[in-house]
Design goal:
This protein is of the alpha/beta class and 437 residues long. The protein has 15 helices and 8 strands. It is 37% helix and 10% strand. The two termini are 28 Å apart.
Amino acid sequence: MKHETFHYRTAEEFRDKLRELGLEIPLAENTDALFRPLGRIPNRIVFQPMEGCDGGTDGTIGELSLRRYIREAEGGAGILWFEAVAVVPEGRANPRQPWLTEKTLASFQQTVEKVKEAGVKKNGYAPVMILQATHSGRYSRPEGTSAPIIAYNNPLFEKDAPISADRIASDGYLDSLPEYYGRTAALAEKAGFDGVDIKCCHRYLLSELLSAYNRPGKYGGSLENRARLLLEGIDAANAATGRDFIKTSRLNLYDAFPYPFGFGTDLREGSAKRDAGELFALVSRMKERGVRLLNTSMGNPYVNPHVNRPYDLGGYVPDEHPLEGVARMIAGVKELQEAFPDLLTVASGLTYLRGFAFPAAAALVESGSAAFAGFGRESFAYPDFPNDLKKGELDRKKLCVACSKCTELMRAGSVTGCVLQDKEIYLPLYRARCMKK
């Protein structure tokens, strides 16, 4: 497919393109729905977990991390979904990924306190803060070089260079992990967070296990086995924290890989057609454990990144229009919300829409197709957009343009942020790391 950049100036131009592609992305007349409180959550805007790769090598929160979260709190989002925090050292995605332990607890406590204070001082409320607990699995790089811990060998990812079988996590190793998820949840509550996310998306370890159809033993084959670690992680978090402490997950609704290598398909050999049967069965089990909030996603940022973050520029050009990816994400969250009307869902993948992202998000909330609208890259580029949007002062020049330079920085082993809107810090790094001849 010919690569097409975002060029829609008016809502009618945008709708014309949707009609041409046969897609449905509704737009609300206004964005008021995004600013309706829900319980203790002051509005429906969620800043998604975005890894800054800027913590201390000892697992503490770094100065750039604190700067980012203070800016986000001051910007007015209702929920700050804190970036991925490792539950074990070997599961860190990079040497600067946060790791919450008794030794680093004070750093997390100070961060939460300062971030919430910033929100109260600027807006009169503190954002709800959720810590994302993770094991990076095949993307583990605790010392800066690849040290994968995989659920099974996958030729779609490894091609003709399979990862050594000794890197496949044993059942015994997986048995040991729920304790660490529980420990991380308890420390998160102690640090002042409002909830914990048992991360299960983007092909990190728990997510990969959901597609371990051909893995032998207690973590492969049946859905009960493949979901075992996710559900036991939730159980451990429940046992370690109070009832009012939110237990949630960022969950892949669909991997967009063919069976037997992708979760959320119709379970026919070689088929990548989206099917929600197993997803709904899994969500039912999660709800039985008290999960009432789910943050949705799809795909894999390393192999099919267009699925979860449609974008314009770069060397990777998918065989679909970026708006197809946005529409797929919207269809997935809407389907889930309709199936579980008492579940609070977070929509994702909206940033590509530029200024149309906000009426699209409002339409989802207004229609009951999602409870919240999540923004990841936009939080890097324009952390003030919630307040500016509410005041009717949105500055379209500040919007994320989906160039993925933040991702390029991360791939280059740098700290990361918006190269275009946060130029003082990240543009020199981009020039040094990503523009070498």
